[in-house]
Amino acid sequence: MNEAQTEINIPHLFRCPISLDLLEDPVTLITGQTYDRSSIEKWISAGNFTCPVTMQKLHDLSFVPNHTLRHLIDQWLHLGSQYHPSTNNNSATIDYLASLKNNLESHDSTLETKLKALEKIKVLSDEYCSFRKSCFQQLSFLSLLLELVFGLCLSHDSKLSENYLEFVELTLSCILKLLPIVNLEPLNIIKDESKLENFIFLFENGTSSIKTSLCLVIDYSTTVSQTEDLCHVLGNSQKLVHEIVQVVINQNSDDDDDDEVSMAAIKALSALSSLESNKESLVKSGAINGIIRYISRCENGQKINLAPLAMATLKKLLVLESGKEALVNHVNGIETLVKMVFKVCNQECSESAVGILSIICSDFGSAREVAIGAGVLSQLLFLLQSQCGTKTKTKARMLLKLLRSKWSEESM
Length: 412
Hints:
Layout (H helix, E strand, L loop, with lengths): L2 H5 L18 E3 L5 E3 H9 L18 E2 L1 H16 L7 H16 L5 H16 L3 H9 L2 H10 L11 H17 L14 H13 L2 H13 L7 H8 L2 H12 L6 H18 L5 H6 L2 H13 L7 H11 L3 H9 L3 H7 L7 H17 L1 H9 L2 H10 L4 H22 L1
Antiparallel strand pairs: 1-2, 1-3
Helix pairs in contact: 3-5, 4-5, 4-6, 5-8, 7-8, 8-10, 10-13, 12-13, 12-15, 13-16, 15-16, 15-18, 16-19, 19-20, 19-22, 21-22
């Protein structure tokens, strides 16, 4: 690495996990981890047949050049020659960011020019700097990026081109980089009818990456009071909520992209359910069905999951009678929850499952019958004999007592 490169604060993603130097020839293993070619070749030639980061055994020692990351590094190095992150020249910083903004705003800029500008913004927003944060805020970058994605006159009767989808993906990626470091009030432009229509249209017709990003934007809309009205608008769009639910229902467990978007969708449903005024819309749009399907897949061994968050969301929706009825009427709803009662590896899930079953079994005789038929009594006894927490055991005893008393009443 030359002297100019060592002076620059290298982004974490651009460093080889083995050498910690800038990636010169990034290659990706079957595990999905990226290393510099020379470093991983030395690692393997030394007799190490595991991934250095994950320690997974490498059944396939081949690796694939990571051209996307190489391109981003090249862009970053080119950027470094024009803009040095360690300089204190605030005026130059503002001027450089303003030039990027101008490239994005200009009607004369080609799509290629705009994509390059977005890549540079993504790199700059990756490296935290308080002054740079204020620059993004001062130059209203979030408003501009939101306008670029949702403010265009999209033809809702035609298929989106691959180039446009790439542009949307990268713009949304930049938006997500900015959300943690700027004021979120500009998100409220999505409340505008035409922009909301575009939001939904992109969700319906976008790639998995676009859907994931849109779900994460929804998640952010509940983090501050400034965007509470936006959360209400999004949550009461049954068309949008239905699309989010379909993402969860249609997940292909063998597809990593589907796993990612499905988890983002669960985050979105959880975020929307935090607002009381959204709950009826969520239930009507099938959220209970989607959540049960997600929990069922997690119970069947999905490696990375948000089952605790999904179950917490389900419990929030049960404050509504319609929510309880949707759960009781679900063909596999009660059985799925019974299977989650005794989860040694996830006590949070066990506690949630017991709590939800207590609510449902207290109000619905049919739910009690199904739960008992599905083996809930033995599941609860196993749970009580396990090393679960005191709070979980207390809830388990209460549910056992409820089931026994109700069973006795109904047998008389």
